[in-house]
Each structure stands twice: as structure tokens, then as C-alpha cells.
Amino acid sequence: MPHHSRVTRRLGLKAALSAAAALPLTSTAPSASAAPAAPEPSRELEVMSFNLRFASTTEPNSWAVRRPVLHALLDRAAPHVIGTQEGLFPQLLDIASDLGPRYDWIGTGRLHGSHDEFMAVFYDTQRLTPTEYDHFWLSDTPDVIGSNTWGAALPRMVTWVRFRDRYADGQEFHLLNTHFDHASQSARERSAALVAERVRSLDGSLPLVVTGDFNVAAHSNPVHDTLLAAGLADTWDTAGERSPLYGTFHGYEPLTPDGDRIDWILTTPGVTTRRVVIDTFSADGRFPSDHLPVRASLTLG
Fold it and tell me: Are 235 and 296 in contact (CB under 8 A)?
């Protein structure tokens, strides 16, 4: 069953402390002139999808080497919500520490513990409030933790969250975050069909965003076709502006212009995408992951 209201005690307390820290300070001291009004916060929602590459110790691209690069990337991009893939629990704690108290996260391991990869969703607590979340597994028994019935190399799953956006007049939306199997096309196709079914089962009056590493190229695979047929739109296609196109998996090799987009941000049609970016940020020749993150600036409607 889905979870409602407070996400967990840890998350609820942390969000409350962040909200308290964000309250304006007051003073009884007289002022010669009124302070200038604060700028109106942007209604655009900055969304990122990012396969983090698990926290390997293998050099030259160990997590210890990549962590400061990822920190710099996130500080520069300042996303409001990040759908991540492959993160391990200690790695996610590192990212949470680097992001600071303004952010929190939701997730569980693929086997519902802390010793496997997560589909963690990070979010800016000053902008977004989670009101409901749950997980399901990409199998014939999606509510069975760790289930894998379609021949995938590994158990695969979805973490979804219902958020309230305080900068958009309390508009609510759903975010689904996933990572499809890397080995089995059949498992990927059945995963797409299940995600499409779940998308249709959610409250259709709310905007919806899907982030993920789908392990197939957009527009050249039935996986992409199935998700678009479910009423989703690819932000790369609908964006008013786009960055240069690069293959989103580079494996720490030179980037591939006009390469395969296997990491996508999808939305329901009522969401407007102003800009979408395949982020090529690196520092001293180091990339934060073997994937490039995808960023989209969205207006929920």
C-alpha cells in the first residue's frame, strides 16, 4: 500500500527543520527605508535524471575521485528534484551531506535493504513536500520486494513520489524514477508495459514526470514507443530549447556527439518543457559518472 503524509520520521523531521530554517527573521528595530521586495521565485521546476554509477573503488574513476566532481555539478545545476539510479546507501549519504540540509531523499534498495542499488529521489525541501510515496518491482509480482520474473539480469524497480510544489500554488505532481535492465530486451519491454499501466492508474488530473535510465536509445526501440503510447512525451522532443546532443552513456570515454539517448525525462502532455540539457560537466578531465545527467526546466501547468 502507498504511504501517506509523513514519509518517514527521519524525513519528516528533517523537512520540518529545513522549513523552520527558511522562515524569515524579524526585528523590532526601526528602519529608515523599506527593504526591497524579494524577487518572485521561478515557477519552473528543475528536474534531473542521473545514473550515478555505483560507488566503485576501481581507479581512476573511483567514487572518492568522482564525489567532488558530482558535488560541483549539483551545486552548479541546483535541481529541485533528482531521479537517481545505481546509488549505493553510503554513496547516497555522501550526496545528501554534500547537498546540505536543504535537500532530503526517498528510496530503498532493490532488495529492500541498504546493501543494494537504490532508485533514490532527492528533492529540495524548500520547494517540494512529499505527500505520498511507494515502490514497485518490474516483474509479474510488482508488490513482491526484490521480485524478478522476466529474465532480467538483476531485480529492477520503480520509486515514485507524489509532491506538492509550494512555488506553483501548491500544485501536486507525481514523479516516477526507474532503471530498466541492461541485458534483456524482453524484460525492458515488459517493464515499459508495467510502467505504462501504473501511469494510467495514477490520478490523471495531476502532472506526471518520469526519470530513468532505460538502457535503450530513444526513438529506435519498442520501449520508448510503449511509454509514449501511454500518453507520455519525451522532453527532448517537446523542449523549446535543447543543448547539443550527446550519447548519455560514455563509459569514461570521449563523448559521442549525436549519440544514443538512453537516459530520459518524460512527462504528461500538459507539462511544458522550456529547456532540456544533456549536461557534459567535468572537472580536470573527470566526469562524475559514466553517464551524463539529463536536466529539464518544466512548468507543470
Answer: yes
Q: List CB contacts of 124: < 8 A, sequence separation 6 or more.
A: 79, 80, 81, 102, 103
Q: What are the residue boundaries of the structural domains of the chain, listed by start?
A: 47-299
State which H helix or E strand residue 225 sits in. Answer: helix 222-229
Determine the residue type at 115. H
Task: Name the one residue in this structure whose C-alpha cell is 516516477.
Answer: 176
Cα–Cα distance for residue pair 103/81, rounded to 1 Å? 9
Q: Which residues neighbour 49 within 8 Å (Cβ) at sequence distance 6 or greater?
A: 82, 83, 85, 177, 211, 212, 213, 263, 264, 265, 293, 294
Checking DSSP bridges between strand 3-4 and strand 128-137, what pairing results, if any?
antiparallel
Q: Residue 229 corresponds to which cell in the numbers above?
A: 503510447
Nearest to 135 by CA among 158, 115, 114, 117: 158
Q: pLDDT by residue (tens digit) across 121-141?
A: 999 999 999 999 999 999 999
Residues 6+ apart with CB under 8 A from 57: 63, 64
CA distances for 243 relative to 63, 206, 246, 273, angstroms? 27, 28, 9, 13
Cell of 208: 506526471
Cα(91)–Cα(135) distance, integer angstroms: 20
AA identity, residue 263: D
CA distance 19 to 13: 10
**What are the grid coordinates assigned to 201, written together?**
492508474
- Long-range (24+ apart) CB contacts under 8 A made by 141-145 are 142/194, 142/198, 145/111, 145/112
Please give the distance of CA 257 from its chain centroid, rounded to a whole number: 24
CATH assignment of 47-299, among 3.60.10.10, 2.60.40.790, 3.40.50.10790, 3.40.50.620: 3.60.10.10
Tens of pLDDT, residue by residue over 36-86, are: 444 556 789 999 999 999 999 999 999 999 999 999 999 999 999 999 999
